[in-house]
Amino acid sequence: MSYEKGCDNMRLVKIFKSVENELSTMEQEINTWAKGTGSTIISVTGNIAPQTRSTASQGFSASDVLLVVLYEPVE
């Protein structure tokens, strides 16, 4: 996506990173950011990394979660 000078609908991205066992905290962070900026959210895209076996407990460690928010800032 390109931005031309004088264009009123510039879109930006904000990246949030967390781990799967802290999703509620991540959700609060995103909602607080969105309310605080007053921006219009266009889309949210996410990805979760595959789980890997933890050597310490022989269980699975928490996977990384990445969310990319496409938004239009308030002018």
Describe this structure in words.
- The chain has 75 residues and is of the alpha+beta class.
- It has one domain.
- It contains one helix and three strands.
- Strands 1-3-2 form a three-stranded antiparallel beta sheet, covered by helices on one side.
- It is elongated.
- It starts with 11 loop residues before the first strand and ends with a strand.
- The relative contact order is 0.34.
- The mean pLDDT is 86.
Structural domain tally: 1
Q: How would a textbook summarize the main sheet?
A: 3 strands, antiparallel
Outline type: elongated
Structural class: alpha+beta
Enumerate how many helices there are, as a single number. Answer: 1
**What string, H for helix and E for strand, traces the elements in order?**
EHEE
Q: What percentage of amino acids are in beta strands?
A: 25-35%
Q: Compute the gyration radius: what is it? A: 16 Å
Averaged pLDDT, please?
Answer: 86
Distance from first to last alpha carbon? 19 Å
Main β-sheet, spatial strand arrangement: 1-3-2
Count of beta strands: 3
